[in-house]
Amino acid sequence: MARLRTWALGxxxxxxxxxxxxxxxxxASGTFFYTRADNGMETTLNIPTPNGACLAISGGARNAHNxxxxxxxxxxxxxxxxxxxFVGSRNFETFSAPFPTFVKFG
Length: 106
Prior knowledge:
Layout: H1 2-20, E1 27-28, E2 30-36, E3 42-45, E4 49-50, E5 54-56, E6 61-68, E7 72-75, E8 83-87, E9 91-94, E10 102-105
Antiparallel strand pairs: 1-4, 2-3, 2-6, 5-10, 6-9, 7-8, 7-10
């Protein structure tokens, strides 16, 4: 009986540790594609990238396909404070002028 109780407590403790660790909260992974507003070329961002980092989108984004595991917020300034749109994980969005020139994941 004591062995069963020890095993059950150990299993419970392991489950609690696994449940309490957030899944990959520090970086987006996958590919973020966008069509440049200035020349129409499809471009990708280097992923993985830390969540919360404000990343430049060269040429602005006419549209974006977020094929990462993390939602992306789009902005028109380098401080990522002027919101321009949202691209959910595994989703596609189209933007109008002023085109977003920065993105932040997470």
